[in-house]
């Protein structure tokens, strides 16, 4: 099993009551509420957390990015990935992911990632995402072509990494006269690509068709297993057998010395949920054309208050009861994680351990306890359950680079 | 105002998609180009105009019940489709009445065939960047708030759409929105070239603006008048962006008077 440390890098030092007053804490919530002095302190605290995560035995550090919102201070995942490439020695640097449609020049992304891969001596895992709805507006990118841009940018990046230059690329959205960057990845044929997601069926199917592991972001056990069913069925269709090495799972997990303290701290996870969903303007988070047409009615109902958010999260108590948030002293957390691992059988797990206003001291204690007590127990459980990571299973990086595909039945064509 | 009209409806294959066209009335042909929020089936203004004109009301490709052309990338493409439609109908010289976003489409059409339109009537047209302010960005407001912003008098909005528009209406607005984004996202709802192409248009042109237009600032009229110095301008007091829905009698009076003179 591959176990990662994750934090959203929350900008917790802003006046929360101002967000409530404004009615939204993304896109248009004025950045005069951002305090760069606190920002500087927080960025450096996150670096300290990452260093400790490596020291206590995590296999990877998961990074992401968002724009115009306090719930995530990373405006460019590749910047933190570059920092980690230089200051860590062993952990995988797992970007989940670069929001491809936001880029006007994917070759530039390919170059940056290649540099990170070389500097880190081949420790990059390069995930790709579509970017949230608000991100499209924050960067002026057309939401109606989001998926087209995602797929085209992906094709251009993987070709840039694997096809000798110079070559010409002419798509609908990207037009490159000369693709011939001098930075190419150290890992061959290219760094592993993992695809994170929440509710979009199209993305699950797309990931499976490329044989990229899919990382379910903080979904319920039931949602997660439904995702695996769809992924595994698609995998069979394209000629490989899926399993834990293709299944990743991000969970909110917080550990403290006592159950009481952990539960109290874990309430901070709802801070981020409030930011991300409860206080997002639905028209901003789901611009027209961004989602699949079969979700159109649900989203317009949500946007007028006639329906609940398709991304709605239940109450904190329910989330604790249903293991959506796992919090407690190490023994409590280990027992619950074992249960979730048995129920969902992932080969990749990401522990989203700290959020909101959790103090740096409590965050570091959490990371230490995870490393000393929880990770060894998880590894033991993973061994017993035969949950292998893509590295342990030595899976090919993609369908295109697979030598072991099963012949497809002729009738399927 | 007149009652509802019985449309003659047809689907025409144009540019690879099925275009929905409704026709009614007798008189010189008048092509009505609808808004970025689509169009209702019936409007008092349509019924009244049908008494004076042969009214041609297509739904833009990708809007309402007209099929979406996935290849379409610009409002100029959309205008070319409507030119094709007029050729198909044998009515290349039909007068053009463009409502808001439809005014942009009409102006593009006129710039493509400067001798053709019998008259060009642009009601609060988008398409040229206002010298100050900006065209209201629907990407930042809800579907209902955007539709309401088109009306100075909210009672006029509610009389047509209801105080609480149906979910079906919201879905329709969302489909329109997606198509607006596909062809007019950047620059948002205006063209960088149109103003330079209008000088050749020979059609008598009427520019109408609601004095209280909150969607396309009335200051935008200055840009149009620079591009089309011979255009006649009329301002409708106490009226927002959606002139045909808020002041239908006034719109019909101005259009018929202008057409008779033209």
From TrEMBL, chain A:
One example GO MF annotation: oxidoreductase activity, acting on paired donors, with incorporation or reduction of molecular oxygen
InterPro entries on file: Bact_Lucif_Oxidored (IPR050766), Luciferase-like_dom (IPR011251), Luciferase-like_sf (IPR036661)
Gene Ontology cellular component list: cytosol
Keyword line: Monooxygenase, Oxidoreductase
Pfam families linked: Bac_luciferase (PF00296)
Gene3D superfamilies (alphabetical): Luciferase-like domain
Origin superkingdom: Bacteria
Protein name per Swiss-Prot or TrEMBL: LLM class flavin-dependent oxidoreductase
Organism in which the protein naturally occurs: Roseicella frigidaeris
């Amino acid at each position: 099993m591959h176990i990662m440390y994750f934090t959203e890098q929350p900008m917790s030092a802003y006046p929360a009551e101002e967000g409530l007053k404004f009615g939204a804490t993304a896109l248009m919530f004025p950045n005069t509420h951002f305090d760069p002095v606190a920002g500087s302190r927080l960025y450096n605290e996150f670096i300290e957390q990452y260093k400790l995560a490596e020291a206590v035995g995590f296999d990877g550090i998961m990074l992401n990015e968002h724009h115009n919102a306090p719930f995530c201070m990373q405006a460019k995942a590749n910047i933190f990935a570059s920092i980690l490439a230089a200051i860590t020695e062993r952990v995988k640097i797992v970007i989940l992911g670069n929001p491809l449609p936001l880029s006007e020049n994917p070759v530039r992304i390919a170059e940056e990632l290649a540099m990170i891969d070389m500097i880190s001596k081949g420790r990059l895992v390069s995930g790709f995402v579509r970017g949230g709805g608000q991100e499209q507006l924050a960067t002026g990118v057309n939401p109606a072509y989001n998926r087209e841009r995602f797929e085209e940018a992906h094709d251009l990046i993987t070709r840039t990494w694997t096809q000798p230059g110079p070559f010409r690329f002419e798509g609908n959205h990207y037009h490159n006269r000369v693709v011939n960057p001098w930075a190419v990845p150290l890992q061959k044929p290219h760094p592993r690509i993992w695809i994170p997601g929440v509710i979009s069926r199209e993305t699950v199917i797309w990931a499976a068709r490329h044989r990229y592991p899919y990382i379910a972001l903080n979904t319920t056990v039931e949602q997660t297993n439904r995702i695996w069913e769809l992924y595994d069925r698609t995998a069979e269709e394209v000629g490989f057998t899926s399993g834990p090495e293709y299944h990743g799972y991000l969970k909110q997990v917080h550990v403290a010395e006592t159950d009481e303290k952990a539960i109290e701290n874990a309430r901070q996870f709802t801070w981020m949920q409030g930011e991300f969903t409860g206080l997002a303007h639905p028209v901003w988070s789901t611009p027209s054309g961004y989602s699949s047409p079969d979700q159109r009615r649900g989203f317009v109902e949500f946007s007028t208050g006639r329906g609940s958010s398709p991304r709605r999260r239940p109450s904190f108590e329910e989330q604790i009861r249903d293991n959506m948030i796992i919090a407690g002293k190490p023994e409590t957390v280990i027992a619950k994680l074992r249960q979730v691992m048995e129920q969902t059988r992932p080969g990749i797990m990401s522990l989203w351990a700290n959020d909101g206003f959790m103090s740096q001291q409590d965050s570091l204690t959490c990371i230490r306890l995870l490393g000393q007590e929880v990770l060894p127990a998880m590894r033991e459980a993973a061994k017993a359950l035969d949950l292998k990571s893509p590295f342990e299973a030595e899976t090919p990086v993609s369908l295109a680079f697979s030598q072991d595909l099963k012949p497809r039945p002729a009738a399927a064509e | 105002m007149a009652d509802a009209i019985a449309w003659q409806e047809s689907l025409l294959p144009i540019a690879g998609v099925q275009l929905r066209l409704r026709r009614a009335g007798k008189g010189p042909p008048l092509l009505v180009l609808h808004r970025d929020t689509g169009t209702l089936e019936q409007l008092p203004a349509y019924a009244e105009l049908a008494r004076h004109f042969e009214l041609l009301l297509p739904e833009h490709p990708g809007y309402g019940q007209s099929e979406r052309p996935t290849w379409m990338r610009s409002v100029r493409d959309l205008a070319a489709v409507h030119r094709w439609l007029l050729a198909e109908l044998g009515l290349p010289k039909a007068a053009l009445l463009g409502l808001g976003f439809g005014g942009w489409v009409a102006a593009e059409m006129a710039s493509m065939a400067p001798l053709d339109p019998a008259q060009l009537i642009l009601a609060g047209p988008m398409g040229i960047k206002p010298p100050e302010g900006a065209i209201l960005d629907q990407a930042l407001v809800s579907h209902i708030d955007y539709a309401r912003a088109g009306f100075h008098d909210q009672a006029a909005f509610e009389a047509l759409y209801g105080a609480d528009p149906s979910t079906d209406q919201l879905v329709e607005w969302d489909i329109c929105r997606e198509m607006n984004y596909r062809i007019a996202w950047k620059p948002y709802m205006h063209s960088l070239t149109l103003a330079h192409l209008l000088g050749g248009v020979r059609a008598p042109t009427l520019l109408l603006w609601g004095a209280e237009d909150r969607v396309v600032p009335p200051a935008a009229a200055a840009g149009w008048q620079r591009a089309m110095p011979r255009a006649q301008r009329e301002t409708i007091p106490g009226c927002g962006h959606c002139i045909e829905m808020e002041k239908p009698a006034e719109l019909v009076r101005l259009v018929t008077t202008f057409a008779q003179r033209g």
